[in-house]
Amino acid sequence: MNEHAPQRFVRDPAIVTRSIGSETVLVPVRPNTAALNAIFALNETAALVWQALATPQSLAELIEHVCAEYDVEPRAAQDDLIPLLESMLAAAVIQEVA
Fold first, then answer.
1. Residue 15, C-beta contacts closer than 8 angstroms, at least 6 positions apart
2. Where are the extended beta strands (E) located within the chain?
3. How far apart are CA 9 and CA 59, in angstroms?
4. So which domain of life are we looking at (predicted)?
């Protein structure tokens, strides 16, 4: 992922959020049962990012959002966000948009 690319990310509309105890999970609402293997658990930071992704967000916007919420430097936020976004893309819980 290139942090200088004008990529924007947004939630996949076929994913719903569920809270189980203190954990937030993403559950696909697709017609095939194989999708049940795609349940995606979120930690506190990932849940914050998921909330932000209700509308299209760039990496830079997500970095700002995380830095505003937590006492973290932009580079550290970026280093955490890139693998998170890559794993969310691979799990098809988010999409890239123009």
1. 26, 27, 28, 29, 40, 93
2. 8-11, 15-20, 23-28, 40-42, 57-58, 94-97
3. 8
4. Bacteria
Q: How far apart are CA 8 and CA 47, in angstroms?
A: 18
Looking at residue 92, its pLDDT comes to: 87
Domains of the chain, each with CATH number or no CATH: 10-93 (1.10.10)
Instruction: Give the CA distances from residue 75 to residues 5, 57, 69, 84, in Å, rounded to whole numbers and listed in that order.
Output: 16, 17, 15, 14
pLDDT above 90 for 86? yes
Least confident of 18-22, 61-65, 70-74, 93-97: 18-22
Each residue of 50-76: pLDDT tens digit? 999 999 999 999 999 999 999 999 999
- Look over the chain and give the mean of its residue pLDDT values, rounded to a whole number: 88
